Amino acid sequence: GVAGRISRFNEQTSDMLRASVHWVIRIAMVALAAIAIYLMMMFVLRGFYLAGLGFVLACMALAIVAGSLGRQRPELEVETSYRRSIFGAIIHFIVGNPVMPFVAILVTIGAVIFTFGYFGKHNNGVEFFVDTEPENAIVYVRARGNLSLAEKDTLLQEVEQQVLDIDGVKSVFAFAGQGGLNQNTGGAEAPLDSVGQIQVELVDWWVRGTGTGVPILNEIEERVKNIPGIQYEILRADVGPASGKPINIRVSGQNWQDLLASAATVRDKLDATEGLIAIEDTRPLPGIDWQIDVDIEAAGRYGADVATVGAMVQLVTRGLLLDTMRVDSSDEEIDVRVRLPQKDRLLSTLDTLKVRTNVGLIPLANFISRTPVKKLGQIDRYDAERYFMVRADVAEGLNANEKVTELTEWFEAEIRLAGSIGYEFTGDQEDQAESADFLKVGFTGALGLMFVILLAQFNSFYNSIVVLTAVIMSVAGVLVGMLVMGQAFSIIMTGTGVVALAGIVVNNNIVLIDTYQEYARHMPKLQAIVRTVEARIRPVLLTTITTMAGLAPMMFGLSLNFLDGGYTLNSPTAMWWKQLATAVVFGLGTATVLTLVFTPSLLAARVWITAGALSGFRRMRASSDPMLAADLALAKVKKTRHPDTITWAYSEHDVLLDRPNSVTGAALAEQTQANDAPDADAETGTAPKKDATKSPLKAAE
């Protein structure tokens, strides 16, 4: 094929350089080829994609020149004998007797169970997505009272000035009242008593230093909390999937009073829980609204109606809409309203206003009354039930899932909510549960498809189950990686790593079992297992080592800058992939041990169980068959006898045929029992040894 021709060309060119060019020049050529690879790669990264061809040629040149530096090995004589390697001897020790395969299986299963148990008690928690370095934040300024827009802006300017004086802040956008730039807040809404917001952009992380984003936000908090007359709330605009506050509790029900009481109970619990910050709820804010009631009967006696009364009230409040108009500076229509001068926009003005009727000017006070009522900003429903939201953030360094578990235990300990009021965790917890369910279904579906494909390939239920068992048990390596690297189990990134790991693990086991099935057609099964592991250890280790080495920089958060040179650690982008890389690296390392030790043990266990079952069946038959009993007794004696030694010699007929290295003589057996010696042990596959030390020829085992 083409690849073979290219390989032969490279080898021949290397041999030619080795024979005709001095080694010093060849070393210089290696350096030039490496420089050419670097330059071509830089051109490709800068958009000169035609340099990719030069990159390929430079790599080919480096392979040729580097190959010429090695010594030319002499051709080895072909040996037909088989010598077991050290690793093969270890595998033979495990699979060559009926006890060790089961010991290896039990030890492996015990280690996996211990890993799961230890991780359950000493894990670093579970999180929805990776916690990365903050780049942006929103500071909500909260204040209560009937504040005008100018008063809100005055409070906001005071907070804005404090934020601008902090090192590490790149830019600040302030919005009094409603408004603000679009941010990745994950559905998080501003607090109900918010009078404005300040959107903060931090200096780029490579300028301010890695790990400085949270301290900058902490400094903002320290300065803002000393401003009198306001409260504040800082929301990090995380990179990645949008998310608001990690703890969101929806309290819902039909009874209004019970709903208010239950929301207050949940709010008090969150206030008393250590580690929860920025707690808020959506209950109506304290305040009053003025309710105006019109006595329709009295108004009718004066010839007035509700519409006329409403128009007079609007003169005191928002203004009476006359018309709309368009201006050049706006794409939308602008309302034209008329209302009383500012000095007359008072509630007491309603007592002196007069409405024109058929009978003349009549004071409004004759047929209206105003009553103060509790302020109700909005009405929210979910599935036809009114609800309130109670939200909270988690202090830095704490895990939100642990707090959710604590709150769930508090809810379930006894009836906490009044009447028929219910509760539900939403937000991050809801998304996390949906993602976890999706990954479970996806992983289970992947295992099912793998099983179908393996069954069609191997035509064996047992071998297919062996492969899937190794895939499932490799998850223990992922948990070990989370513990060693001190990472939390991310539903998104670690879960994706587990699914990706399954594909690599199943490939190694498929190759191993396919090779075993091929060998088992030509030799005893136990011997086939040993030969299979010896044959596949190199490709399995190469696959594992190259994959782990390639993912190691990602696992440690290392980013290389090929354009400008240098490297960085734990950049915001690199933080996304640390948990996924950790899952694959540690999981693959564990899966390699499973592939080379656990899988052969399972294969050998099947052989020994089958042999034991057949042996037991034959013993049962021997009780009624004397000839079979005699055969079993003879086979037992045979196992205790040492193999006979046979000395080989050659006759004159061999010399006449010009056979090399032949000697005269006849092939004689030193013991007559040699004729009855078995060719190979049926169970272990060990052939009798034949002494060929007296012959110039090597005897094959």
Q: Explain this structure to me?
A:
The protein is α+β, with helices and mostly antiparallel strands and 701 residues long. It contains 21 helices and 21 strands. A hairpin with an 8-residue loop joins β9 and β10 (334-338). It is elongated and about 135 Å long.
> Which structural class is indicated by helix and strand composition?
alpha+beta
Shape: elongated
Radius of gyration: 41 Å
Largest sheet properties: 5 strands, antiparallel
User: What share of the residues does DSSP label as strand, in percent?
Assistant: 15-25%
Summarize the structure.
With 701 residues, the chain is of the alpha+beta class.
Using brief descriptors, characterize the structure shown:
701 residues, five-stranded antiparallel β-sheet, four-stranded antiparallel β-sheet, alpha+beta, disordered C terminus, single chain, elongated
List the helices and strands and how they pair.
Layout: H1 2-20, H2 23-45, H3 51-69, H4 86-95, H5 100-122, E1 126-127, E2 136-142, H6 149-164, E3 169-176, E4 194-202, H7 205-208, H8 213-224, E5 231-237, E6 247-253, H9 256-272, E7 276-281, E8 288-294, H10 296-301, H11 306-316, E9 320-325, E10 334-338, H12 349-352, E11 354-357, E12 360-363, E13 368-374, E14 381-382, E15 385-394, H13 400-413, E16 422-426, H14 428-458, H15 461-473, H16 475-484, E17 489-490, H17 493-520, H18 525-555, E18 558-560, E19 567-569, H19 572-622, H20 626-640, E20 646-647, H21 652-656, E21 668-669
Parallel strand pairs: 1-17
Antiparallel strand pairs: 2-4, 2-5, 3-4, 6-15, 6-16, 7-15, 8-13, 9-10, 11-12, 14-15, 18-19, 20-21
